[in-house]
Amino acid sequence: MKFLKSEDGPTAVEYAVMLALIVIVCLTAIRAVGTNANARFNQVSNQLT
User: Fold this and answer.
1) pTM (predicted TM-score)
2) From CA 15, how far away is CA 17, in angstroms rounded?
3) Buried b (16+ CB within 10 A) or exposed e, 13-38
């Protein structure tokens, strides 16, 4: 409990929460870009054949 009462505890928790949110946003963006790129490649492939 000493860790949570000092300034380092809450700061570490805040950084962990921010890092988790950043990771979630990055993964969501990568998934969206990948899905859009895949759809575009399929569209181009279908037009070429």
Assistant:
1) 0.64
2) 5
3) eeeeeeeeeeeeeeeeeeeeeeeeee
Block means of pLDDT (10 residues each) for the chain, length 49 residues?
65 92 97 93 92
Rounded Cα distance between 24 and 30, Å, is: 10
d(CA 10, CA 17): 10
Q: How far apart are CA 49 and CA 36, in angstroms?
A: 20
Alpha helices in 1-49 (DSSP H): 2-5, 8-48
The end-to-end CA distance of the chain, in Å, is 66
CB 4 within 8 A of CB 10: yes
